[in-house]
Amino acid sequence: MDFHALSKKYEKEYLEKVIELLKIPSVFEEDRKYPYGKPIHDALEKMLSIGKEDGFITKNVDGHGGHIEFGYGDEVIGVLGHLDVVPAGAGWTTPPFDPVIRDGKLYARGAQDDKGPVMAAYIAMKILKEQGFQPKKKIRLILGTDEERDWKGIDYYFKNETMPSLGFTPDASFPVIHAEKGLLDSYMTYPVPENDGETKVISVKGGDRLNMVPDEAVAWVESHLNVEEIFNDYLAQHKLEGSVKAADGRFEVKMKGKAVHASKPQEGRNAITELLRFLQSLPLDGEYELFIQKVYQAFETTDGKGLNVKQMDDVSGPLTSNLGSIAMDEHTCKLGFNLRYPVSADYGVIDQNLKELAANNKGTYEVYDHLASIHLEKDHPFVKTLLSVYNKVTDEEAAAKTMGGATYARALEAGVAFGALFEDSPDTAHQKDEHVRISDMMKAIQIYSESLYELTR
Protein backbone atom coordinates (compact mmCIF):
# COMPACT_ATOMS: atom_id res chain seq x y z
CA MET A 1 0.00 0.00 0.00
CA ASP A 2 1.12 3.53 -0.78
CA PHE A 3 0.41 5.04 2.61
CA HIS A 4 1.70 8.47 1.59
CA ALA A 5 -0.76 8.76 -1.28
CA LEU A 6 -3.58 7.29 0.79
CA SER A 7 -3.10 9.77 3.64
CA LYS A 8 -3.35 12.67 1.18
CA LYS A 9 -6.53 11.18 -0.27
CA TYR A 10 -8.19 11.26 3.15
CA GLU A 11 -7.26 14.87 4.04
CA LYS A 12 -10.71 16.30 3.28
CA GLU A 13 -12.46 13.58 5.30
CA TYR A 14 -10.04 14.05 8.20
CA LEU A 15 -10.77 17.77 8.36
CA GLU A 16 -14.54 17.34 8.09
CA LYS A 17 -14.64 14.79 10.90
CA VAL A 18 -12.19 16.47 13.25
CA ILE A 19 -13.88 19.86 12.88
CA GLU A 20 -17.18 18.35 13.97
CA LEU A 21 -15.46 16.84 17.02
CA LEU A 22 -13.65 20.09 17.85
CA LYS A 23 -16.92 22.03 17.93
CA ILE A 24 -17.88 20.16 21.10
CA PRO A 25 -16.60 22.06 24.21
CA SER A 26 -15.65 18.86 26.03
CA VAL A 27 -14.40 20.44 29.27
CA PHE A 28 -15.16 18.63 32.54
CA GLU A 29 -18.39 19.60 34.29
CA GLU A 30 -19.98 18.33 37.48
CA ASP A 31 -23.08 16.36 36.47
CA ARG A 32 -25.30 13.81 38.18
CA LYS A 33 -26.19 12.01 34.95
CA TYR A 34 -22.92 12.00 33.01
CA PRO A 35 -19.65 10.95 34.71
CA TYR A 36 -17.64 13.92 33.39
CA GLY A 37 -20.38 16.24 32.16
CA LYS A 38 -22.56 16.34 29.07
CA PRO A 39 -20.01 17.97 26.70
CA ILE A 40 -17.51 15.14 27.26
CA HIS A 41 -20.35 12.63 26.89
CA ASP A 42 -21.30 14.31 23.60
CA ALA A 43 -17.71 14.10 22.30
CA LEU A 44 -17.55 10.39 23.16
CA GLU A 45 -20.87 9.72 21.46
CA LYS A 46 -19.82 11.71 18.39
CA MET A 47 -16.58 9.76 17.98
CA LEU A 48 -18.31 6.41 18.49
CA SER A 49 -21.02 7.35 15.98
CA ILE A 50 -18.35 8.20 13.41
CA GLY A 51 -16.83 4.76 13.91
CA LYS A 52 -20.18 3.00 13.74
CA GLU A 53 -21.18 4.78 10.53
CA ASP A 54 -17.91 3.64 8.95
CA GLY A 55 -18.59 0.01 9.84
CA PHE A 56 -16.33 -0.46 12.86
CA ILE A 57 -17.24 -2.27 16.06
CA THR A 58 -17.86 0.35 18.78
CA LYS A 59 -18.54 0.26 22.49
CA ASN A 60 -19.45 2.86 25.10
CA VAL A 61 -18.23 1.75 28.53
CA ASP A 62 -20.83 3.40 30.77
CA GLY A 63 -19.81 6.89 29.69
CA HIS A 64 -16.35 6.52 31.20
CA GLY A 65 -14.71 5.70 27.89
CA GLY A 66 -15.19 3.67 24.78
CA HIS A 67 -13.48 2.08 21.82
CA ILE A 68 -13.56 1.65 18.05
CA GLU A 69 -12.21 -1.66 16.80
CA PHE A 70 -11.56 -3.93 13.88
CA GLY A 71 -9.48 -7.03 13.26
CA TYR A 72 -9.34 -10.63 14.45
CA GLY A 73 -7.62 -12.76 17.03
CA ASP A 74 -7.20 -12.67 20.79
CA GLU A 75 -4.37 -10.17 20.90
CA VAL A 76 -5.22 -6.46 21.05
CA ILE A 77 -3.04 -3.57 19.86
CA GLY A 78 -4.28 -0.46 21.62
CA VAL A 79 -4.20 3.17 20.56
CA LEU A 80 -5.11 5.37 23.53
CA GLY A 81 -6.28 8.95 23.09
CA HIS A 82 -8.58 11.32 24.95
CA LEU A 83 -11.53 13.51 24.01
CA ASP A 84 -11.63 15.83 27.02
CA VAL A 85 -9.88 19.21 26.80
CA VAL A 86 -8.70 21.88 29.21
CA PRO A 87 -10.74 25.09 29.60
CA ALA A 88 -10.26 27.47 26.70
CA GLY A 89 -9.16 30.54 28.65
CA ALA A 90 -9.09 34.05 27.24
CA GLY A 91 -7.21 35.83 24.47
CA TRP A 92 -8.07 33.69 21.45
CA THR A 93 -7.95 35.25 17.99
CA THR A 94 -11.06 33.27 17.01
CA PRO A 95 -13.56 31.39 19.24
CA PRO A 96 -11.88 28.25 20.65
CA PHE A 97 -14.76 25.92 19.80
CA ASP A 98 -15.40 27.35 16.36
CA PRO A 99 -12.59 25.60 14.42
CA VAL A 100 -10.92 27.58 11.64
CA ILE A 101 -8.15 26.88 9.13
CA ARG A 102 -5.58 29.61 8.59
CA ASP A 103 -2.30 29.32 6.70
CA GLY A 104 -2.42 25.52 6.65
CA LYS A 105 -3.13 25.26 10.38
CA LEU A 106 -6.24 24.07 12.20
CA TYR A 107 -7.12 26.26 15.20
CA ALA A 108 -9.36 25.09 18.07
CA ARG A 109 -9.12 23.93 21.66
CA GLY A 110 -8.18 20.25 21.40
CA ALA A 111 -6.72 20.50 17.90
CA GLN A 112 -3.37 19.33 19.27
CA ASP A 113 -4.39 17.87 22.63
CA ASP A 114 -5.79 15.42 21.76
CA LYS A 115 -8.69 15.38 19.30
CA GLY A 116 -6.57 16.10 16.24
CA PRO A 117 -4.18 13.18 16.87
CA VAL A 118 -7.07 10.87 17.88
CA MET A 119 -8.76 11.53 14.57
CA ALA A 120 -5.46 10.96 12.75
CA ALA A 121 -5.24 7.50 14.35
CA TYR A 122 -8.87 6.83 13.43
CA ILE A 123 -8.33 7.78 9.78
CA ALA A 124 -5.28 5.48 9.74
CA MET A 125 -7.54 2.63 10.85
CA LYS A 126 -10.12 3.54 8.21
CA ILE A 127 -7.50 3.53 5.47
CA LEU A 128 -6.51 -0.03 6.37
CA LYS A 129 -10.13 -1.14 6.58
CA GLU A 130 -11.15 0.37 3.24
CA GLN A 131 -8.08 -1.09 1.53
CA GLY A 132 -9.38 -4.53 2.48
CA PHE A 133 -6.65 -5.24 5.00
CA GLN A 134 -7.60 -7.90 7.56
CA PRO A 135 -5.50 -7.52 10.73
CA LYS A 136 -4.50 -10.74 12.45
CA LYS A 137 -4.79 -8.88 15.76
CA LYS A 138 -7.52 -6.55 16.95
CA ILE A 139 -6.74 -2.85 16.49
CA ARG A 140 -8.58 -0.93 19.18
CA LEU A 141 -8.79 2.87 19.37
CA ILE A 142 -9.52 3.53 23.04
CA LEU A 143 -11.20 6.84 23.82
CA GLY A 144 -10.48 8.41 27.20
CA THR A 145 -12.65 11.05 28.85
CA ASP A 146 -10.79 12.33 31.94
CA GLU A 147 -7.12 12.60 30.95
CA GLU A 148 -6.83 16.28 31.78
CA ARG A 149 -7.93 15.69 35.38
CA ASP A 150 -7.71 12.46 37.35
CA TRP A 151 -7.67 9.60 34.79
CA LYS A 152 -10.76 8.11 36.43
CA GLY A 153 -12.24 7.37 33.01
CA ILE A 154 -9.37 5.22 31.77
CA ASP A 155 -9.12 3.49 35.15
CA TYR A 156 -12.79 2.55 34.93
CA TYR A 157 -12.37 1.44 31.31
CA PHE A 158 -9.57 -1.02 32.09
CA LYS A 159 -11.42 -2.43 35.08
CA ASN A 160 -14.09 -3.52 32.63
CA GLU A 161 -12.25 -4.15 29.35
CA THR A 162 -9.28 -6.18 28.09
CA MET A 163 -5.84 -4.68 28.56
CA PRO A 164 -4.03 -4.50 25.18
CA SER A 165 -0.88 -6.58 24.96
CA LEU A 166 0.88 -3.51 23.53
CA GLY A 167 -0.18 0.01 22.70
CA PHE A 168 0.70 3.61 22.05
CA THR A 169 -0.82 7.02 22.68
CA PRO A 170 -0.74 9.82 20.06
CA ASP A 171 -0.51 12.46 22.80
CA ALA A 172 3.13 13.51 22.81
CA SER A 173 5.73 13.64 20.05
CA PHE A 174 7.63 11.50 17.59
CA PRO A 175 9.74 9.49 17.14
CA VAL A 176 8.97 7.12 20.09
CA ILE A 177 8.85 8.01 23.80
CA HIS A 178 9.90 4.72 25.34
CA ALA A 179 10.25 5.93 28.95
CA GLU A 180 8.46 8.49 31.13
CA LYS A 181 9.84 9.73 34.43
CA GLY A 182 8.08 9.18 37.72
CA LEU A 183 5.83 12.08 38.73
CA LEU A 184 5.32 13.28 42.28
CA ASP A 185 3.13 16.16 43.46
CA SER A 186 3.64 16.95 47.14
CA TYR A 187 3.16 19.57 49.83
CA MET A 188 5.37 20.63 52.73
CA THR A 189 3.87 22.74 55.49
CA TYR A 190 5.97 24.62 58.03
CA PRO A 191 5.29 26.86 61.03
CA VAL A 192 6.52 30.38 60.35
CA PRO A 193 8.77 31.85 63.07
CA GLU A 194 7.86 35.17 64.63
CA ASN A 195 9.31 38.24 62.98
CA ASP A 196 10.04 40.99 65.50
CA GLY A 197 12.03 43.14 63.11
CA GLU A 198 10.99 46.52 61.76
CA THR A 199 10.49 45.01 58.31
CA LYS A 200 7.89 42.25 58.22
CA VAL A 201 6.62 39.95 55.49
CA ILE A 202 2.88 39.67 56.07
CA SER A 203 2.14 37.12 53.36
CA VAL A 204 3.50 35.46 50.24
CA LYS A 205 1.31 33.84 47.59
CA GLY A 206 2.01 32.46 44.14
CA GLY A 207 1.24 29.66 41.73
CA ASP A 208 -1.80 27.43 41.56
CA ARG A 209 -0.66 24.50 39.38
CA LEU A 210 2.17 22.27 40.47
CA ASN A 211 2.87 21.20 36.89
CA MET A 212 3.66 24.74 35.75
CA VAL A 213 6.52 27.07 36.64
CA PRO A 214 4.66 30.01 38.23
CA ASP A 215 4.88 33.30 36.36
CA GLU A 216 3.70 35.53 39.21
CA ALA A 217 4.14 35.74 42.98
CA VAL A 218 3.06 38.45 45.41
CA ALA A 219 4.29 39.44 48.87
CA TRP A 220 2.85 42.01 51.26
CA VAL A 221 5.61 43.74 53.18
CA GLU A 222 5.34 46.12 56.13
CA SER A 223 8.32 48.43 56.59
CA HIS A 224 9.41 51.98 57.36
CA LEU A 225 11.90 51.61 54.49
CA ASN A 226 11.19 52.74 50.94
CA VAL A 227 10.49 49.21 49.69
CA GLU A 228 9.27 50.62 46.38
CA GLU A 229 12.68 52.07 45.60
CA ILE A 230 14.52 49.00 46.94
CA PHE A 231 12.47 46.62 44.80
CA ASN A 232 12.73 48.64 41.61
CA ASP A 233 16.51 48.87 42.05
CA TYR A 234 16.60 45.11 42.64
CA LEU A 235 14.61 44.44 39.46
CA ALA A 236 16.95 46.60 37.40
CA GLN A 237 20.06 45.02 38.91
CA HIS A 238 18.91 41.44 38.27
CA LYS A 239 17.10 42.14 34.96
CA LEU A 240 13.75 41.00 36.32
CA GLU A 241 10.19 42.19 35.84
CA GLY A 242 7.72 43.10 38.53
CA SER A 243 5.79 45.89 40.19
CA VAL A 244 5.32 47.44 43.62
CA LYS A 245 2.77 49.77 45.12
CA ALA A 246 2.23 51.25 48.56
CA ALA A 247 -1.04 51.00 50.47
CA ASP A 248 -1.66 52.01 54.12
CA GLY A 249 1.94 51.59 55.23
CA ARG A 250 2.33 48.29 53.44
CA PHE A 251 3.80 47.39 50.08
CA GLU A 252 2.42 44.94 47.54
CA VAL A 253 5.51 43.44 45.90
CA LYS A 254 4.75 41.52 42.71
CA MET A 255 7.40 39.44 40.93
CA LYS A 256 6.97 38.27 37.36
CA GLY A 257 8.49 35.09 35.95
CA LYS A 258 8.30 32.93 32.84
CA ALA A 259 5.81 30.08 32.84
CA VAL A 260 6.80 26.76 31.29
CA HIS A 261 5.72 23.17 31.87
CA ALA A 262 7.17 21.59 35.00
CA SER A 263 8.80 18.84 32.94
CA LYS A 264 11.39 21.46 31.85
CA PRO A 265 11.56 23.91 34.76
CA GLN A 266 15.07 25.02 33.84
CA GLU A 267 13.65 26.70 30.74
CA GLY A 268 11.41 29.01 32.77
CA ARG A 269 11.85 31.60 35.49
CA ASN A 270 10.14 30.76 38.77
CA ALA A 271 8.45 33.87 40.15
CA ILE A 272 8.21 32.36 43.64
CA THR A 273 11.90 31.60 44.04
CA GLU A 274 12.82 34.97 42.54
CA LEU A 275 10.55 36.69 45.08
CA LEU A 276 12.04 34.68 47.95
CA ARG A 277 15.49 35.71 46.77
CA PHE A 278 14.46 39.36 46.88
CA LEU A 279 12.94 39.05 50.36
CA GLN A 280 16.31 37.89 51.69
CA SER A 281 17.75 41.26 50.68
CA LEU A 282 15.47 43.04 53.17
CA PRO A 283 16.52 43.57 56.83
CA LEU A 284 14.38 40.81 58.31
CA ASP A 285 14.55 39.41 61.83
CA GLY A 286 17.32 36.79 62.16
CA GLU A 287 15.25 33.63 62.68
CA TYR A 288 12.67 34.73 60.13
CA GLU A 289 15.36 35.55 57.58
CA LEU A 290 16.88 32.10 58.11
CA PHE A 291 13.47 30.52 57.44
CA ILE A 292 13.05 32.39 54.15
CA GLN A 293 16.60 31.40 53.24
CA LYS A 294 15.93 27.70 53.86
CA VAL A 295 12.78 27.72 51.76
CA TYR A 296 14.63 29.45 48.94
CA GLN A 297 17.60 27.08 49.10
CA ALA A 298 15.32 24.04 48.89
CA PHE A 299 14.16 25.18 45.44
CA GLU A 300 16.98 27.46 44.30
CA THR A 301 17.98 24.94 41.63
CA THR A 302 15.67 22.67 39.64
CA ASP A 303 17.75 19.50 40.11
CA GLY A 304 16.43 18.54 43.55
CA LYS A 305 19.72 19.30 45.32
CA GLY A 306 18.06 21.49 47.94
CA LEU A 307 15.56 18.71 48.69
CA ASN A 308 18.28 16.08 49.04
CA VAL A 309 16.95 14.07 46.10
CA LYS A 310 19.31 15.07 43.27
CA GLN A 311 20.04 12.17 40.88
CA MET A 312 20.03 11.11 37.23
CA ASP A 313 20.42 8.08 34.99
CA ASP A 314 21.49 7.39 31.42
CA VAL A 315 18.01 6.35 30.30
CA SER A 316 15.87 9.34 31.30
CA GLY A 317 18.27 12.01 32.52
CA PRO A 318 18.16 14.12 35.69
CA LEU A 319 15.49 14.54 38.32
CA THR A 320 13.73 17.91 38.06
CA SER A 321 11.93 19.87 40.77
CA ASN A 322 9.49 22.76 40.50
CA LEU A 323 8.12 24.91 43.31
CA GLY A 324 4.62 25.31 41.89
CA SER A 325 2.80 27.09 44.71
CA ILE A 326 3.28 28.93 47.98
CA ALA A 327 0.71 30.12 50.50
CA MET A 328 2.34 31.82 53.48
CA ASP A 329 1.00 34.07 56.19
CA GLU A 330 2.43 35.07 59.57
CA HIS A 331 1.83 31.61 61.03
CA THR A 332 2.02 28.92 58.31
CA CYS A 333 3.85 28.31 55.05
CA LYS A 334 2.53 25.68 52.62
CA LEU A 335 4.72 24.77 49.65
CA GLY A 336 3.48 22.73 46.69
CA PHE A 337 6.04 21.15 44.39
CA ASN A 338 6.40 18.75 41.50
CA LEU A 339 9.21 16.22 41.08
CA ARG A 340 9.98 14.19 37.98
CA TYR A 341 12.43 11.45 38.82
CA PRO A 342 14.48 9.09 36.60
CA VAL A 343 13.10 5.68 35.65
CA SER A 344 15.84 3.88 37.62
CA ALA A 345 15.27 5.90 40.82
CA ASP A 346 14.06 4.28 44.03
CA TYR A 347 10.83 6.08 44.89
CA GLY A 348 10.98 4.79 48.46
CA VAL A 349 14.29 6.58 49.03
CA ILE A 350 12.95 9.81 47.54
CA ASP A 351 9.87 9.63 49.72
CA GLN A 352 11.95 9.01 52.85
CA ASN A 353 14.35 11.87 52.11
CA LEU A 354 11.48 14.32 51.68
CA LYS A 355 9.83 13.18 54.90
CA GLU A 356 13.09 13.63 56.79
CA LEU A 357 13.67 17.08 55.31
CA ALA A 358 10.25 18.24 56.46
CA ALA A 359 10.59 16.68 59.92
CA ASN A 360 14.07 18.15 60.46
CA ASN A 361 12.59 21.61 59.90
CA LYS A 362 9.53 21.06 62.13
CA GLY A 363 7.24 20.61 59.15
CA THR A 364 4.95 18.02 57.65
CA TYR A 365 5.09 16.27 54.28
CA GLU A 366 2.08 15.13 52.25
CA VAL A 367 1.93 13.30 48.91
CA TYR A 368 -0.87 14.65 46.75
CA ASP A 369 -0.35 12.44 43.70
CA HIS A 370 2.22 9.94 42.47
CA LEU A 371 2.66 8.21 39.12
CA ALA A 372 5.41 5.62 38.90
CA SER A 373 7.80 5.77 35.98
CA ILE A 374 7.40 3.56 32.91
CA HIS A 375 10.08 2.12 30.68
CA LEU A 376 9.97 -0.13 27.63
CA GLU A 377 13.47 -1.07 26.51
CA LYS A 378 14.74 0.51 23.30
CA ASP A 379 15.35 -2.90 21.76
CA HIS A 380 11.80 -4.13 22.43
CA PRO A 381 10.33 -5.34 19.09
CA PHE A 382 7.34 -2.99 19.49
CA VAL A 383 9.58 0.05 19.93
CA LYS A 384 11.80 -1.02 17.04
CA THR A 385 8.81 -1.49 14.71
CA LEU A 386 7.35 1.95 15.45
CA LEU A 387 10.75 3.60 15.16
CA SER A 388 11.48 1.83 11.88
CA VAL A 389 8.24 3.08 10.32
CA TYR A 390 8.83 6.62 11.57
CA ASN A 391 12.36 6.72 10.15
CA LYS A 392 11.21 5.28 6.85
CA VAL A 393 8.46 7.88 6.43
CA THR A 394 10.57 10.85 7.54
CA ASP A 395 13.88 9.67 6.06
CA GLU A 396 15.55 10.16 9.43
CA GLU A 397 17.74 8.05 11.70
CA ALA A 398 16.03 9.06 14.94
CA ALA A 399 16.38 7.15 18.20
CA ALA A 400 13.76 6.48 20.87
CA LYS A 401 13.50 9.21 23.51
CA THR A 402 12.36 9.75 27.09
CA MET A 403 10.36 12.56 28.67
CA GLY A 404 9.19 14.00 31.96
CA GLY A 405 5.53 14.32 31.02
CA ALA A 406 2.71 11.89 31.71
CA THR A 407 0.65 10.23 28.99
CA TYR A 408 -1.88 7.42 28.74
CA ALA A 409 1.06 5.11 28.03
CA ARG A 410 1.19 4.80 31.83
CA ALA A 411 -2.27 3.23 31.79
CA LEU A 412 -0.94 0.33 29.71
CA GLU A 413 0.96 -2.69 30.93
CA ALA A 414 3.32 -2.18 27.98
CA GLY A 415 3.07 1.04 26.04
CA VAL A 416 4.78 4.11 24.63
CA ALA A 417 3.91 7.59 23.42
CA PHE A 418 4.10 7.91 19.64
CA GLY A 419 3.42 11.32 18.08
CA ALA A 420 1.64 13.23 16.90
CA LEU A 421 4.01 16.24 17.06
CA PHE A 422 7.24 16.40 15.10
CA GLU A 423 10.46 18.03 16.22
CA ASP A 424 9.65 21.30 14.46
CA SER A 425 5.91 21.30 15.25
CA PRO A 426 4.56 24.27 17.21
CA ASP A 427 3.66 23.08 20.71
CA THR A 428 0.45 24.97 21.55
CA ALA A 429 -1.37 22.53 23.85
CA HIS A 430 -3.23 24.22 26.73
CA GLN A 431 -2.47 27.64 25.23
CA LYS A 432 -4.62 30.27 23.54
CA ASP A 433 -4.86 29.78 19.77
CA GLU A 434 -4.03 26.06 20.10
CA HIS A 435 -3.45 24.60 16.64
CA VAL A 436 -1.86 21.88 14.55
CA ARG A 437 -0.33 22.02 11.12
CA ILE A 438 -2.54 20.04 8.78
CA SER A 439 0.56 18.69 7.02
CA ASP A 440 1.71 17.22 10.35
CA MET A 441 -1.58 15.38 10.78
CA MET A 442 -1.37 13.98 7.26
CA LYS A 443 2.13 12.70 7.96
CA ALA A 444 0.93 11.26 11.28
CA ILE A 445 -1.86 9.42 9.45
CA GLN A 446 0.72 7.91 7.13
CA ILE A 447 2.92 6.83 10.04
CA TYR A 448 0.02 5.41 12.07
CA SER A 449 -1.52 3.47 9.18
CA GLU A 450 1.79 1.88 8.21
CA SER A 451 2.67 1.15 11.85
CA LEU A 452 -0.66 -0.57 12.53
CA TYR A 453 -0.23 -2.52 9.31
CA GLU A 454 3.23 -3.75 10.34
CA LEU A 455 2.08 -4.62 13.87
CA THR A 456 -0.95 -6.68 12.81
CA ARG A 457 -0.27 -8.25 9.41
Any overview of this molecule?
The protein has 457 residues and is of the alpha+beta class. It folds into two domains: 3-180 and 374-456, Aminopeptidase, CATH 3.40.630; 183-371, Alpha-Beta Plaits, CATH 3.30.70. The chain is built from eleven helices and 24 strands. The strands form six sheets. Strands 13-14-12-11-17-18-10-19 form an eight-stranded antiparallel beta sheet. The chain has a six-stranded mixed beta sheet with strand order 1-2-6-3-7-22. Strands 4-5-24 form a three-stranded antiparallel beta sheet. Helix 1 packs across helix 11 (438-456). The two termini are 13 Å apart.
Quick rundown:
The chain is an alpha+beta fold. It has helices spanning 3-9, 11-22, 38-53, 115-130, 152-160, 227-238, 271-279, 286-299, 347-360, 381-394, 438-456, and strands at 57-60, 65-70, 76-82, 100-102, 105-107, 138-144, 166-169, 172-173, 177-180, 182-191, 200-206, 216-222, 241-247, 250-256, 312-313, 317-318, 320-328, 332-341, 364-371, 374-375, 401-403, 415-417, 420-421, 435-437.
Give the secondary structure arrangement, pairings included.
Elements: H1 3-9, H2 11-22, H3 38-53, E1 57-60, E2 65-70, E3 76-82, E4 100-102, E5 105-107, H4 115-130, E6 138-144, H5 152-160, E7 166-169, E8 172-173, E9 177-180, E10 182-191, E11 200-206, E12 216-222, H6 227-238, E13 241-247, E14 250-256, H7 271-279, H8 286-299, E15 312-313, E16 317-318, E17 320-328, E18 332-341, H9 347-360, E19 364-371, E20 374-375, H10 381-394, E21 401-403, E22 415-417, E23 420-421, E24 435-437, H11 438-456
Parallel strand pairs: 3-6, 3-7, 7-22, 8-23, 9-21
Antiparallel strand pairs: 1-2, 2-6, 4-5, 5-24, 9-20, 10-18, 10-19, 11-12, 11-17, 12-14, 13-14, 15-16, 17-18
Helix pairs in contact: 1-11, 2-4, 4-11, 7-8, 10-11
GO molecular function: acetylornithine deacetylase activity; dipeptidase activity; metallopeptidase activity; zinc ion binding
Pfam families: M20_dimer (PF07687), Peptidase_M20 (PF01546)
Cofactor: Zn(2+)
